[in-house]
Specification:
176 residues; binds ligand AR6
Amino acid sequence: METKINNAMIALVQGDITREETEAIVNAANSGLKGGGGVDGAIHRAGGPSIMEECREIGYCSTGQAVVTGGGNLKAGYIIHTVGPVYSGGNRGEADLLKSAYLESLKKVTQNRLRSVSFPAISAGIYGYPPREAAHIALETTINYVKNHEDIELVRFVLFSRDIYDVFSDELKKMI
Ligand code: AR6
């Protein structure tokens, strides 16, 4: 499904983010930028070794922050690596950290003068964030951002499974 908010199309699709053609894609990384499983593993496998070389040079990214590398062999020219929180019950600042991961990623889009970006469901896999809460934070943060930033024209949420796609579309329908 998709909906227009201010100057931006917000689109939800089921699929593999490594195949996206937006100018940037976001990676759900870890603080050491060392690669791993999930979407992080898929991006490094599909994008080739130049991405890891750049990650090694950058060295570290705190939870809730974001760093940028090139896209290697991917169609996207930029990868925004952000680190979502590990979910441990919900009383350890997880919501603020997840919001910050989306916000800092969106700021990187603006700072690099890009107009389109694709996100995975940050923290909703290995890091264990409850999908519905994760979807709500993802969509609310993005909608608020594009309301104030006309530079962004397209934000795609690329959801890997039907289940997570359905949760995101339920939450988006409630917000529009
Ligand atoms: N395209 C889009 N989404 C994907 C893809 C893909 N190719 N592969 C998985 N997903 P996760 P996290 C979905 O675990 O929870 C890594 O080891 C997945 O189904 O990738 O933030 C990092 O190095 C889920 O819905 O990220 C960190 O150590 C969503 O992407 C840690 O995992 C996020 O799941 C980060 O955990």
